[in-house]
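cache lookup: miss for this entity combination. No prior model stored, computing from scratch. Input as submitted by user K.M.:
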Amino acid sequence: MDWQRYWQGLEVPTPRTIYINDPLRNSFCPNWISTAKYSKWSFLPRYLYLQFSKAANAFFLFISILQQVPDMSPTGKYTTLLPLMVILIISGIKEILEDYKRHMADRLVNTKTTLVLRQSSWDRIMWQEVNVGDIIKALNGEFLPADMVLISSSEPQSMCYIATSNLDGETNLKIRQALPETAGMQTEQQLLNISGKIECEGPNRHFSCFTGTLHITDRSPVPIGPDQVLLRGTQLRNTQWIIGIVVYTGFESKLMQNAVKSLLKRSKVEKVTNVQILALLLLLLAMSLVSFVGSLFWDRANRAGMWYLSKEGGKSSSFGFDILVFIILYHNLIPISLLVTLEIVKFIQAQFINWDEDMHDEKSGLHAMARTSNLNEELGQVKYLFSDKTGTLTCNVMTFKKCTIAGIPYGQSSSCELDDPALLANIKNGHPTEEYIKEFFFLLCMCHTVFPERDGNNMIYHASSPDEAALVKGAKNLGFVFTMRTPHAVTIEALGEEYTFEVLNILEFSSDRKRMSVIVRTPAGQLRLYCKGADTVIYERLSKDSLFMAETLTHLEHFAMEGLRTLCVAYTDLAEEEYQHWLMDYKSASTVIQGRIQRLEACYDAIEKEFLLLGATAIEDLLQAHVPETISALLKASIKIWILTGDKQETAIHIAYSCKLISGHMPRILLNANSVQETHHMIHQNCQDLGDMLDKENDVALIIDGETLKYAMSFGVKTKFLNLALSCRAVLCCRLSPLQKAEIVEMVKKNVRAITLAIGDGANDVGMIQTAHVGVGISGNEGMQATNNSDYAIAQFSYLEKLLLVHGAWNYFRVTKCILYCFYKNVVLYIIGLWFTFVNGFSGQALFERWCFSLYNMFFTSLPPFTLGIFEQCCSQKNLLKHPQLYTISQKGKIFNTRVFWVECMNALGHSFILFWFPTKMLMHDMVLQHGFTTNYLFLGNFIYTYAVVTVCLKAGLEMMSWTKFSHLAIWGSIIIWLVFFTVYSYLWPTIPVAPEMSGQANMILTCPYFWLGFIIVPTTCLINDILWKVMRNTYKRSPLENVRQLESSKVKGFEFSSVLEKRMTATNLQMSLAAPQPHEFILRNNSVDLSAPHGYAFSQTESAVITQEELVHYYNTLVSERKGS
Amino acid sequence: MATNYDVKADVYSKPLCAPKGTANTRRPNNTAFKQQRLPAWKPILTASTMMPSFFIVGLIFIPIGIGILVTSNNIQETEIDYTGTEASSPCNKCLSPVVTPCICTINFTLKEAFKGNVYMYYGLSNFYQNHRHYVKSRDDSQLSGNTKALLNPSRECEPYRRNEDKPIAPCGAIANSVFNDTLELFWIANESDPTPIPIPLKKKGIVWWTDKNVKFRNPPGKGSLEERFNGTTKPPSWHKPVYMLDSEDDNNGFINEDFIVWMRTAALPTFRKLYRRIDRKNDSQPTLPAGQYYLNITYNYPVHSFHGRKRMVLSTISWMGGKNSFLGIAYITVGSISFLLGVAISSLYCLRALLSYISFSTWRPRMPLKRS
């Protein structure tokens, strides 16, 4: 598939012409997509290419070829080829299984259906059959199958609403409007009669760009812009149907163009492993060279007199030939089975993630999904977590939770929605503030741009801003129901009575104004202006007569501390002539050509004054389940969390508060600047303020917006910015474009030697998900974009805790132990060849029978690495979750690094030394058998081989922290498998023409008492050192892990040890915290630092859209749409 | 501090504005295996748990070692070097290739009688039977009586594969260099009667059963051995063809036991090979009484060119084979080390416990740890 993309990358997008109702003239790429790696035909060549581009496999292929040279191989011709083939077949099967899943997922997408105009009727066809030029009808709630130009829609002004969260992650609905020239084309006949063409630019990846021209025969051409384009992946909302003409399909759609080929991510452990393999290769070459030089000297000194050796020495003394013999002899030093073992192990680890019931979302029925298994152990090493906000930390569901009206707070923190009996009582019982309460809710029902829709007895509200919807819904629950909107009126049903307010003007929201107002005529005929907005802007405009200012402010602060988003609401009564005067002004302002927006805002400002405060609302941006707990656990695991969001700064800060990433007293550094100089200055200032504490973790939050970030990422400022950001405990980046998110991740990834993880749910997170070392997608909410580009998909943010702390930590231990062990066992057995070389005249004779030699990795020691890789548990999941500190062990990568690797190799060298010389000395005189029989070299070889298998298996047991039944099976089973194989193998010759030299070995060796005496002492001698090392470590240099393990094992029936554990952990943590630098008090002086308590303000609405909010509201008529609906 | 937070409990128990999950309804296929909750033994090797093991290993190994050492010391063994490189040696004359056949006699004394079965070995030094070019230079198919391989030996046998256009049987360097000294043993019963009594040496029963019956077979056929080997030639260094190695049919051709013993190539350049058996006569009389012996050597095998040495070894055999004190010493050493480690660990452990007790009682109260 990536070659297809490759081609597209080279292609300069040429403009295209699409002929309407003329399918034969449109030939473009099909709407069929594939994210799979192989097709049926490309599998074999591509698979082989991929496999042999791995250095290790290529090396073994090279060895296999070398072995075919006559007289070259000391170990037979096929002894490497066969294992290699087995390995390739096994990993081939795995590839097929994985690719099959991708094919199935693609098929699911490709076989979704949509309505297409074919032969004068609407046919339901599959997505993959959609072609460019097709006329498509999409119904409400459907996802669009391809990029198309909007022709007409069911709504007035041929508008339609689309949810683009799949593409850009923005959750508010977008409005698209068809050209007036096509708006009337709605019936099949009209559509079939269109003749003409669309000329437009070639496929590209820019979501917000589109230039095209619609030529309809006999009419003048009209330009088409992004407002007429509906993209694949968006969802139609609040619109009964739309009709569009397909312009880009399949891989050419903007969605797919943006899905850049995800690069193969390699884990840090894998990279280290590759380096070690290379190091081993060098060691192998060195060993070969030493042996070869040895053979030169030995031959020169001794060969002449050795009449018994065949005189073919002349032929084989060429440099290349002899050294290759040694390379073949020692080549198994590089573990042939390591890669395939790891692949299988990781595959099963990924299955464990998929199977995990703790990461199963009951609501959506989704399990966690490991989409790659390469990065399993990377999950255990995450240091930086980059999280999206909307849909990741939050559910993107707003709830009207609390309010303060006339200085009295309402709402309990425990309940889900505002539902305070006191409030209801106050309304009914004629409390002194009753009028205020009513006015408050009238305002909430009036001052918004929400559209109601009656669904039986229930009201459904459509809003471009979830905040507004929440307020209206909240008011409804308390008996103030917004029931109908007509172009110039709003009807509400308040406590059983119906009121109709005439809506005269809507003073629009913008992020500069931070407020919106409506001017209405009350049923009583009074002109009234209702306004809601941020506390700062409302308080500026309050009249002197306004009451409850101090109380409300206190309540606002309380709400804000709880992480609620607050809005102040106020009203003012207008005099008739004042309004008429203003209206004139307003009308002239709205027709100004230049600077209209500024004029309008000035005009709005003129009338928004002398407010009377009613109170304030508090909305909860509902967090996903257990986000604060998860974040606090992750922070304890010393993972640094950065929030990267496209949302507004205020919202981001609030979410950071409510998920406990920032605490109330934490100083916040706000970076909002308009130029490079200013940014540089601010960053510099803050760095200086931090002083010595720079580059250490401080209890400070850094908040930066996208605009400033652009400057901060520029050359020269970047390093300082990074230093500053890394010194802060929490970093919030707001208003970021998808690209900036990726840039930040890239910056940290490049400059900090730590593992990064990005988690997000929308298409706008795809960039960072792909950039980070590990990308996690939240599945279920906002389409599949993030999920499809992620490495791991989970249904809820809180599952990250288990994914990282349990699966990550376990997998890290498993993979690293498995790797170390694979290296160890190979070094142990194959270094023995080197020792033997010293006593056989540097001739390259192998000490073991050739198939035993090569089946070592395949059979006799293949099970222990699997058990290490699959069943190893450093400690129970319960304790890993209970003590997130344990995560730091894997995070710091202490188990596997170059030093550990070479220590293990030296240990293996020691073992191989003992394994060779002990049996050699035991068999010194070849007289260990009954009846005085003498032995041969293979007799010694089999002694050593058996002892090596036993030692290596027991060593696996020693490394194992958790023995399951499979561990027993693997360890004892491996030893037994070898002994059984050995016995059977010794009886094959000459019935089966293989291994003549093994003939009779088993019954001589297994009945030899010497063998069994050695069987006990040799592995013991090898491992006594390892045991001693472990004992010393576990007793005198204990890590927290060992403490936890100790306590875990000391769990006697029913004995409650958690208190003991707590005590111990307290002690450990104290030591830790004593060692860590105490947070110093430092003073952040400059004006970019905000030390105040957070202020709640949140309001998101479409700004500068195709249609203004006022127009929008005026177009809408509940009666009309209901008629249409019925 | 560590929270008592448990993901599982959380996900299912707190319905905070979240869907009320049906608590712990696990589907039947959610096995302990899939949920990674298999029961497991989690050993921790600490000083206190491992201390006994070190002592036990020590206490078991040392007696075993002593037992092996005693057994090994009870084995009687005597070794006679007859290379003849020293001028004083009776075999010195045989170094010259002119004297053929060369017979030399070495006399030696057994101070103690050898009881039970006695085995006679020849030993070679600096002979690289384990050299790669040597080890591979044989054809096991041919040796197992395969007619095809008999007439067309494996390429591995080069350059001892064919001679004068005839396939060599047995082919290869190993067979070509078969040991061909003849050793005879005589006992001088008493000083006064110089007539040496020849010791009966058994030449059969010196090879592994599988070698004689499975691995080495003469070519099949009804005719005489000579006929069956028809079309082959002897290895260049041999004086007589393979079918004339012995007069007895069950010790002739490929199944000649001296030949089979040689074909089992040794692991080290210094090695011994079983030559003859001297079976004990009865319980009352030692197999080899103490006294004077003659070793009669028909010296054919040249070793001085590669500075090798040749020896004749007489040895009794115990349950653990011949004399070798290595394993006994190894057991005693490893056992002692283990025991000493046990002592060291336990004393360190006690010391540490003592120290921590002292530091606890003196230092702990003054430490400002309370502020947590």
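stored under new cache key. The longest helix of chain A spans residues 799-839.
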